[in-house]
């Protein structure tokens, strides 16, 4: 039984989708959770659901691609909740296009949110965790960062970057008892993937041994494990939650 009572978590991009499932999973295990997103009303809705579980919660509007926003988020979390035990860098976007058609804005925006946003979160929270001499950081990567994907060069590069960042941070922060891991989801049914063409969804099914798409809950369960003391001796790892798509 995982018990996160008295732990404080910050989850970015948690107004909906995988981030929201992570928030509710951590709260159900006893954690107080800071919900952060560019969508404040969605974040407030998530917060209301956490409070309904009897936990403390706070909604903060924060554009994680901006270091100043990330720092303000962490400051607010510490001043209102007292500490930060778990940081989940989940916020992410796609701007798909073939390389030849991809414009600079599509490239820059995906790198800014997915990769720099993860750096910003780590940079802002690390000082607090170092003082506490404990912390768990979980970064949202993707199978696409491992295997590449036509039409997603920007996204694949950002997620491959997240994996390199995760391993480097794990090496730098291990001596302070801070574990840094990445989760690499495969094809998960959320708002991000609902616009995929039917042919693309069918193509996924042919390469997923478990023969079903993943759910946000499937991802949240692994994040819960990595957030807990059960994972105290696990760092620098990339855990695939993909029904066996990549092995
Ligand atoms: N859905 C999948 O199949 C899949 C697969 C692999 C990885 N992922 C990753 O999982 C994470 C969550 O994906 P999802 O499917 O729940 O997506 P989603 O689009 O449903 O949710 C993403 C959330 O991030 C927020 N966000 C966007 N830009 C932001 C910014 N600059 N600052 C703060 N918040 C911001 C959005 O408002 C939204 O609430 C992403 O990092 C994504 O890349 C998803």
Write the CATH architecture name: 3-Layer(aba) Sandwich
What is the class in the CATH system? Alpha Beta
Strand composition percent: 15-25%
Q: C-alpha Rg, in Å?
A: 17 Å
- What's the total count of β strands? 7
* Mean pLDDT over the full residue set: 98
Give the distance, in angstroms, between the N- and C-terminal Cα atoms.
28 Å
Structure summarized in a few sentences:
The protein has 247 residues and is α/β, with parallel strands linked by helices.
Strand-helix topology:
Blueprint: E1 8-12, H1 17-28, E2 32-37, H2 40-52, E3 57-61, H3 67-81, E4 86-89, H4 104-132, E5 135-140, H5 144-147, H6 153-173, E6 178-185, H7 198-207, H8 216-227, E7 238-241
Parallel strand pairs: 1-2, 1-4, 2-3, 4-5, 5-6, 6-7
The structure holds nicotinamide-adenine-dinucleotide.
The site of nicotinamide-adenine-dinucleotide (NAD) has 30 residues, from α1 and α4.
Description of the molecule:
The protein is an alpha/beta fold and about 250 residues long. It has a single domain (about 10-235), classed as Rossmann fold, CATH 3.40.50.720. Helices cover about 45% and strands about 15% of the residues. It has helices spanning about 15-30, 40-50, 65-80, 105-130, 145, 155-175, 200-205, 215-225; strands spanning about 10, 30-35, 55-60, 85-90, 135-140, 180-185, 240. The protein has a 7-stranded parallel beta sheet with strand order 3-2-1-4-5-6-7, sandwiched between helices. The protein is globular and about 45 Å long. The two termini are about 30 Å apart. The model has no long low-confidence stretch (mean pLDDT about 100). Bound molecules: nicotinamide-adenine-dinucleotide (NAD).
